[in-house]
Amino acid sequence: MTNILSDFPDEVRPDISSIRENNGVLSAQKCKHICELLSIEIECLMVALLPIAASYSKAPISSFQVGAVARGLNTSSEGYSNLYLGANYEFENQALCHSLHAEQAAISNAWLHDEPSVTSLATSAAPCGHCRQFLYEVSGNKPFSILMPKSFLLSPEAIDISKSQSQNNKDRNHKNKKSKVDFEKNCHSINLATLLPAAFGPMDLGCDRLLMEPGFGSNNLHLVDQSDDELVNKALKAANFCYAPYTENFVGCALQMNDGEIFTGRYAENVAHNPSLSAFTSALSHMTMSNVNNTSENIARVVMVEQAKKSCQRHATSILLAALNQDIRLEYHMAAALDH
Ligand SMILES: [Zn+2]
What is the pLDDT of residue 180? Predict the structure, then answer.
């Protein structure tokens, strides 16, 4: 982090450093502060933050660190939004299907902070097909910009932000000559529809909502066996906020660390099934984005609340957890939908 910070001008380093103390989130207020100081647009800041996002990566299998930065839908009156960081997370000696991609981590981070959607996402490597499908579950047919460093420009149809950016900055007589980061050189944008033409999406399976939409605020679940345990009830809440329109396999996870801190995760189902993000992996990502030094060995308890229906995450989660931490076992609680 210290090395990466040295790429930023002195006056913005405190704001950049705050990301580490704020669960991998840069507030809209701090975005505004940085963008105004450097005279750059928020899209360029998102690309500049990619090395910070990638510093959260745990990639013992590929050794390929990926960072992503998602822009929240909620926007201040000045036009700024919170930015949410994410990184890839691989599990050594485990099946590759458990791997979390940086784009998923950034979306999950935004969702767990109750953003109703995201409008664009920067990524340090071209998004793989798996992630394009995952992002389509968030955007549907709405415009959604993928921002990439210039070396990852994929298509001649891509829009070069740097051109309009240069003009904007000329107009406002920008003052960032001393910036060590050459923001304007690095920014390219391409619409997700260009990367994923003729997409298979939620509507193809009769779903008229999208991942993160507030309509999924409650899945109307209750515990089959009531509990006063705080961790169990946090996992229940996560299950109530999860997104599983195709199977109704509603799942939430809550981890408690040895120091008492709690992290939750929500299941994010995908119309193409395989890009789905499990509740447990979502919680592990939440744990890492809060403190990159957190590891699965520091976990004291893991609770899962699930309505198993057509599919079930209990056994896959138990196996992965047993491999990550041999001292604990999954605490499993069944949930069911309340009668209307
Ligand atoms: Zn990917």
Answer: 45
